[in-house]
Amino acid sequence: xxxxxxxxxxxxxxxxxxxGGLSAAKRLKHAPVQVTLIDRCNYHLFQxxxxxxxxxxxxxxxxxxxxxxxxxxxxxTKVLLAEATRIDAAGRRVxxxxxxxxxxxxxxxxxxxxxxxxHDAWEKxxxxxxxxxxxxxxxxxxxxxxxxxxxxxxxxxxxxxxxFIVVGAxxxxxxxxxxxxxxxxxxxxxxxxNINPSQASIxxxxxxxxxxxxxxxxxxxxxxKMLARLGVxxxxxxxxxxxxxxxxxxxxxxxxxxxxxxxxxxxxGVLASPLGRMLAQEAGATLDRVGRVVVEPDLTIPGxxxxxxxxxLSNFSHQTGKPLPGxxxxxxxxxxxxxxxxxxxxxxxxxxxxxxxxxxxxxxxGRAAAxxxxxxxxxxxxxxxxxxxxxxxxxxxxxxxxxxxxMQWAWLYFTRDRSARLITGxxxxxxxx
Amino acid sequence: xxxxxxxxxxxxxxxxxxxGGLSAAKRLKHAPVQVTLIDRCNYHLFQxxxxxxxxxxxxxxxxxxxxxxxxxxxxxTKVLLAEATRIDAAGRRVxxxxxxxxxxxxxxxxxxxxxxxxHDAWEKxxxxxxxxxxxxxxxxxxxxxxxxxxxxxxxxxxxxxxxFIVVGAxxxxxxxxxxxxxxxxxxxxxxxxNINPSQASIxxxxxxxxxxxxxxxxxxxxxxKMLARLGVxxxxxxxxxxxxxxxxxxxxxxxxxxxxxxxxxxxxGVLASPLGRMLAQEAGATLDRVGRVVVEPDLTIPGxxxxxxxxxLSNFSHQTGKPLPGxxxxxxxxxxxxxxxxxxxxxxxxxxxxxxxxxxxxxxxGRAAAxxxxxxxxxxxxxxxxxxxxxxxxxxxxxxxxxxxxMQWAWLYFTRDRSARLITGxxxxxxxx
Lengths: 433, 433
Description:
Strand content of chain A: 25-35%
Low-confidence stretches of chain A: 1-5
Number of strands of chain A: 25
Strand order of the largest sheet of chain A: 5-2-1-9-21-20
Oligomer: homodimer
């Protein structure tokens, strides 16, 4: 009797354990449904702090919460370490690389990764930052560049090792460039004997006419000042024309310049997850220019009220005429809305369209500096940084990690020492001098 | 004048930034010498806690201190990220994979790795634990085994995923088996829906007739009891005959048994670093059965008073007739002795032979349990664990890491939660079901 009742329960399958998928799963804890959360990773990643792993301030485990652990008291929820390869919308099942799973309601929340605007060959020289492996690879490249510069006797080659180029001045690019400035000027100050790390050249290249383009202009100007103070050279209105082994070519107006560099970090261009294309093929969904799925006011796709698309994979333009930004808040709110909608449907209650409440935007620029756009209040400097710090600590999923992150930030603040400066992965020797 | 004085300074080259090499470098801070410390890694690794990274209790950065950071205030010391491939004893220079470096005095401290007693094919199925990469690979295998068991429908295959075999019951094997017991019984208790992690079978296989063979028999008996309490099955007097994909064959007396398992952890067999063979070829050094360099009472090699060999790579048998154990204390004391000897030689003072002071041995067996053999005092249980905890915290090189480790241990003690449970590295999907 009990087991047949369980088998009859409405089956909700969630693909993706990021901010959107996890918030939907959490909100469904007491709903009369059976939840299966599928992810390729065994952890939820707190992506806003990934740049701190890439720059040696935090360890991967500090920003990654095991999904099973987060959901262990959700007795109606299963976590599945698996990769969804196809969505059979007609048959209502998700095809995995090693099995399949049927659903009554599907929530697709597989996010986005970076893109190179058709220049996929650039990826090898200019890695992006979306996964833990990306972050440890970036950390490795940054630290190895200083090691190689210390060993290199040829001044021109040494200068190329000491040149760091960040492409894209959105929040990630600004945060990376700011952290690089701190590494060069503070963290590594006394570490080397042949080079002076503070002479490193850190370039932030942005095609728009200002840094942090989605922010109000006064905050962009404030961010520019803070970056300059950290020794970051800003090149706005500059387009990347080519990236090859050892050099980046940029164009500013009529002028084209090729800059020798051994470290290029990519923080531009977003491309939605390939499951979007799957939904276009199998369920007739419409995609936008970067592959996001255009959704209805209730976050479903036309003709498929049983399929929700949320987070960075979704294009919800009903509220402002523009898609919601690809940050944590829209995904979290959409996840909660979808969970509530599923419950209301089961109770045959009225369903309101999704309404996003913009709580504002925050970006940090090194030590004790940030910009905050709360809509009703715009702040920069220490006050914005305090808000940034508080909000980020609050949203880290596990309590232990909140303490560990706070402790490491306090340490970083007072000593400017980044302890997670490990070069890990494949043997880096001999150095490519 | 100043620069010619520097150029004339006695050049000390240290290969290896482990306990031996680092303690020599630290002790030479104020000596009138030029020190170069060469290591393949950019960090000093606190190897005694590596098993805690392998079992998800700590992050790699918590037990790794960047060598440049540790030695940043040693103005007479350079750190070189490089691999020593050859020692030219006649020409007094170390050949690197990307250069060379001359020395007046050489300290070789490159340690040891694990060996498979001629069965190198076993390594693929039974990885050892010597590097950060080994530890994250072991963590990945342990966590993926539970994930695969959760997915596997075939009971026999599921049982093989739920069987963990640790080969070798020295301190590392005992500590790994104890931590596995805790993971199965406590950490993962509520994480799965199809399997019960506490039904995992954890086997500790040892050829000798008791666990912790170098310890006094009463402490071995105590360790055995503590391991049994954690659900570890102990097979002493058992020899590993074969390891293949999915199974281990062991022999106990006349009886041979093949045990299906998907996770085999190797904690047996030590093999000295290949630089020992180099010293045999180039400087006529004598090696013992496991490749260690037999050293004189002053830790030099015969005929080469300018070459010291210390730590796990050295066989110093003058004190007890047996080589010193391959743990941190003999390496640290030898490093300090060599530094002092170099200073005394420069001052043309009398040199005493090396004398090792045995401060005792400690091994931990899970939560609040350990054995301690301090020579004059033998302890097991909580008291031994308190000593273990205090000593290990004390010897962690960086103050920040001491705090981070203490905090994570306190968390582990009270909640039994291991937060660093990330499956990282190459894409693990599809699972090998």
